[in-house]
Amino acid sequence: MSEAEGRRQAGTTARRIVILTGAGISAESGLGTFRDTGGLWSEYDLAEVATPEGYAADPALVLRFYNARRANCRTAAPNAAHHALARLAEAHAGSLTLITQNIDDLHERAGMPAVHHMHGEVMRALCSACGARWRLTGDIAVEDSCTACGTAGRVRPDVVWFGEVPYGLDAIGAALAEADLFVAIGTSGAVYPAAGFVAEAARNGAATLELNLERSEISPLFEAHRLGPATVIVPAWVDEMLGT
Ligand code: BJW
């Protein structure tokens, strides 16, 4: 590989960067991933806790699942990978779009200025009667009322379950169309439409880089890979990008 091609693949010449993060970036902050050994989907049935049908069948179970995850999120702290990305966003001369599938707020708490939460946010509630959304840090109870319309029994976490449409897809599509570098960090590539972003970015001419603990289902779609814990490989890549 030529030196110029190496720089293109690592992204050090990129102006418009799009980064997609997944559960792996928050794993070393103590928040569980989904599909790794011992992950959330080995403990819970995703059809029961992460679908509208599961919520309709047993709202108390679903609210308990997300109340516990909200409590974990409150006590978790951003790690070196979240901080490194915030540093990159601040110092990068071009544009940086950060899309996360994570519902935690660790990117924000690390200082990332704008975060696209495509699967929603656990620290927000949604009224399924009127669509109002609001920030909350405590528990949701089955009998809670909407702060906007007053309807009781229709408050749920503002997260995107299977079969629901992720947030911000138009803005994400526009960013992917213009990107000259697409980087995926800590995601298994098992869930669409996020798993399709690498192909979309590559079709539009972007260089593609995967940063993950191990190879993922969609690794073959990336031009370049760096394997290891996010707290090690993300700061190292950011240092390279910024020449620090
Ligand atoms: C580390 C690490 C360390 C560990 N350092 N790395 C084909 C095409 C399109 C859609 C579909 C399709 N087939 C089926 C669908 C529908 C469905 C889907 O994808 N199903 C799959 C099972 C196939 N998708 C949907 O329903 C989505 N909506 C949709 O498609 O709407 C239709 C539509 C789309 C577009 C336009 C118009 C209409 C919605 C998906 C919602 C996903 N929701 C969840 C739960 C809610 C939020 C929550 O509770 O947190 O979101 S599922 C769960 O998976 C969660 C995550 O955000 C998501 C992705 O998981 P992630 O982040 O990749 O985590 P893991 O655990 O899988 O991977 C962790 C990785 O980290 C691993 O690789 C580790 O190696 C690595 N790692 N430690 C670095 N220290």
Describe this structure in words.
This protein is of the alpha/beta class. The chain has helices at 3-10, 24-27, 40-43, 46-49, 52-57, 59-75, 80-91, 106-109, 169-178, 197-203, 230-242, and strands spanning 16-21, 95-100, 116-117, 120-127, 133-135, 155-159, 181-185, 207-212, 224-227. The strands form two sheets. A six-stranded parallel beta sheet has the order 3-2-1-7-8-9, with helices on both faces. Strand 2, helix 8 (106-109) and strand 3 (116-117) form a beta-alpha-beta unit. Helix 7 packs parallel to helix 11. The chain binds ligand BJW.
Helix/strand/pairing category: alpha/beta
Question: What's the shape?
Answer: elongated
- Mind summarizing the main beta sheet? 6 strands, parallel
Return the string of H and E elements.
HEHHHHHHEHEEEEHEHEEH
Distance between the termini: 24 Å
Low-confidence stretches: none
**Helicity, as a percent range:** 25-40%
* Ligands present: ligand BJW
The residue-averaged pLDDT reads 95
Features:
six-stranded parallel beta sheet, 9 strands, 18% strand, binds ligand BJW
Topology of this structure?
Layout: H1 3-10, E1 16-21, H2 24-27, H3 40-43, H4 46-49, H5 52-57, H6 59-75, H7 80-91, E2 95-100, H8 106-109, E3 116-117, E4 120-127, E5 133-135, E6 155-159, H9 169-178, E7 181-185, H10 197-203, E8 207-212, E9 224-227, H11 230-242
Parallel strand pairs: 1-2, 1-7, 2-3, 7-8, 8-9
Antiparallel strand pairs: 4-5, 4-6
Helix pairs in contact: 7-11
Bound molecules: ligand BJW.
Briefly summarize what is shown.
The chain has 244 residues and is of the alpha/beta class.
